[in-house]
Structures are given as structure tokens and as C-alpha cells.
Amino acid sequence: MAAIPTYHYPQQGKLTVLGAGESGIGTAILARKKGFEVWVSDVGSISGPYKKQLLDAGIPFEEGMHTESRILDSAIVVKSPGIPNTVPIVQKLKGQHTPVIAEIEFAAQYTNAKLICITGSNGKSTTTMLTWHILSQGGLNVGLAGNIGRSFALQVAQEQYDYYVLELSSFMLDDMEYFRADVAVLLNITPDHLDRYDHKLENYVDSKFRIIRNQQPGDLFIYCADDPNTVAGLGEHHVAGAILPFSITEKIEPGAYLNDNNEIVINVPHQDTFTMDINELSLQGKHNVYNNMASGLVAKAQELRNVSMKESMGSFKNIPHRLEFVACIAGVNYINDSKATNVNAVWYALESLAPQIVLIMGGVDKGNDYEMLRDLVQTKVRAIVCIGKDNSRIYDSLEEDARIIVNSSSMRDAVEIASHLAQKGDTVLLSPACASFDWFKNFEDRGDQFKDAVMDL
Fold first, then answer.
1. Residue 312 annotated as lining a ligand binding site
2. DSSP 8-state class, residue 51
3. Domain Mur ligase central, which positions (predicted)?
4. 72 plus 158 within the same structural domain
5. Would the annotation count 408 as a binding residue?
6. Shared-domain flag, residues 242 and 354
7. Per-residue DSSP letter, 364
8. Ligand-binding site membership of 122 (annotated)
9. In order along the chain (457 residues), what is the average pLDDT of each group of 10 residues?
10. Per the annotation, does 126 bind a ligand?
11. 125 is an annotated ligand-binding site residue
């Protein structure tokens, strides 16, 4: 088991939870169990199931407002990662030196499980799920949490796992001070959420590298040696733990690489070598070779048997909304990639699919640079169907490269247009590159509406 690092936070008194989503409810229940005087505040409305959990636990809450005086009277505040540190109430709390931390940081104080933490601009959900799948199938007692699945804090309160696989966003990492990952995985760094980082890539890189914060010599850092922003960041950040890089362009030992026979080769010190033909992987495409390398390195470092790893990597089913096959209708495949909320994710999706593609994209632009898509749009995309309120940047960037580019008035309209543009053997791909909250509640709602519209064709 991992040694629990020292957390210099109050261990009793008034604790306020800002935000009553999955992480907030779990935090409140764990905090109550640990003896805090807990109160939950959400400026929006609290959904029925979460409200029932609070009522059943006897935890007081407010919704539709923040009572500032009560929040400022807290000994410690745990906030949703979606709340920026720049909002006035957080600034006031920090100004009076009240600790404002993340659910992950709070919950980690109360478990001695080994923490396997995965971040990256793209692929982290798939890699987190794949890693959890491999470890679970290999017989380890492992929980899944973070930016995916059930609340980490709730699992710490109610379960007894020996390992956790945690998907960590940059927003979560920003709110961590003493947290320590036993195994840290950094998949890649591409411009994303730069509006939250003063539109400076270096600030976003610094955020991602917080995943190695507080690591010790016995810990492990796994990273992509082919990613230029990660490699550059290594020159600016001290790595205390052992390193295991992975690459598809060069031979790396110890680490993981792709050999001349199109086999993944994984070498971890003191473990037997693992090899697997990439055609036997359940997840196809170059980006998924990287994801399997990262997950395989984690698994070998936990001393899993090769036969178990190979079976798991060949049987894994991808997460919903990430290159999720929906249906084949009149010879046209429909793929839901609603979780692709940045340009790099769309690039990976286009790269992994055969021509011809009718691409449904658009939404709330986060300062996207669509230039990297131009070659793939020219060679693989039959047409682009835009969703969302304002797609002027997509038109400005891709109109010269796309054979057809049209607007739609709803997801149902977009799917109907795409179905008419597609020919037998084509793929209709929802891969938006943008946030979803102009037309949809979230990316899940966007993906679900796509699937419903496809099934109604």
C-alpha cells in the first residue's frame, strides 16, 4: 500500500462544498463521515438524485445561490473543478487564507490505496478505462474515479480498494497542493481550455505537469516521448520518480515502443517483456496504440501477467461518446465521438477512420485552431455539417478544404442532412471539436441526441 502524504488542512470544523454534482455529493458524504460540520452550496439547481442523497445523509444545503457570509466562515472549502479560481468567492476565500481544494485532494487524505493517475489533452478517458479494465481483469482490487465514473470521495467513504485509477483534468490538478500520484501518466499536451490559462500554452503545460507534483523516488512517471510539448515540459519540471516513456517512432528501453513487426513491445525493469500485434488490439488507430502502450506500462509495473494483459487489451470496449459505433444504416456507419471537445481529438478520430467521412462538428469554440485538420479534411472528408450557434471560425479555416460545408438547425437536422450527403460505405462522424453548452446540457446529452436521431432515420 502507498504511504499517505502529509496534508496540511483542517481535520475538523466547518467544511463547505461548492457545487452539488457527483464530486460534491461524494465529498459531503465523506466529510460528514470524518466528523466535519458539512454544508453544501450550489448557485444552480441541485438534481433530484443528488438532492435525495443529501437529504438521506442529513446534510444541509442551499441551491440557486451562494450565501457568502456562511461560505467565508468555513475552515475549509472543497469546490467543483468546474469553478475557476478567479471567481470572486474563491478569491475572497484565498484572500483570508481559507484552504480551497479539490475533491481528489480531499479524499486522498483518507485512503492508503495506490493512486494511478492519468491526464492528457486527448485519450485520458479511454486510457483510464482501459487501464482499469486491464488491472481489474488481472485480479487487482481497483476502483475507477476522477473525471469519470463514481465520485472518488464517495468510494473512499464506502469502499475498500487497494488501487484507484483516476482520470485527472487540468482543472482538478490546478486545485491540488499535497496530493501525490504513485503512478503518473501524461499522454499528451495540445492546446485546450486556453481561455482558462490566460491563452498561454506554457500555463496549460505547467498545469498538466502538476501530476508529478510531490512524487518520490519510488514513484513512476509514464509519458509520451513523441509529444513535443511534453518533452519540452520535461526540461522545465523536475521528475523525482522513475520514468517509463513510450513511442511509436523510436525504440525505447525501458519503456514501450512499436517494433518493425507492428508489435507493441513493453519493457519494465525486473519484468518479462510484453509484445502484442497492434492488429489484435480491440481499439484501432494510431492514437489507440499510444493509449495501449500507456495502459500496458502501468499494468506491467503492477506485475500483471502477459497472458492476462493480452486478453484484456483484445477484449476492451470503448467508453460511450468516444468513437462509439451507433449503427450501420443503408451501408453508412454512424459514429458518436461527442467527447471530442478539442481539435486534436477530432484529428485523432479522422486519422483512425477510413475515407469517406461526413463530419458533424461545431459548438462553443474555445479558441480552436483548425489548421491541423486541413489535410485530413482534404483527403478523408466528403462534407462537413455544422452544429451550434456560431461556426464562423470553422468556415474561415476549412471552407477552402471541404468539398461541402453546410449549417444545421438542430442535431436531428444535422443527422438528416448527413444521411443524405453520405454514400454507401461512408461514415457519418459526430466529432465536434467544441464545447456543447450552446445547444446541449453537456457532451453526453449531445451524443445521446445524435444516437437518438440516428436510430430514428
1. no
2. H
3. 118-298
4. no
5. no
6. no
7. B
8. yes
9. 65 94 94 97 89 94 95 95 87 95 94 96 87 96 89 94 93 87 93 61 84 95 95 92 96 96 96 95 84 97 97 86 86 92 84 88 85 91 94 92 95 97 95 91 95 96
10. yes
11. yes
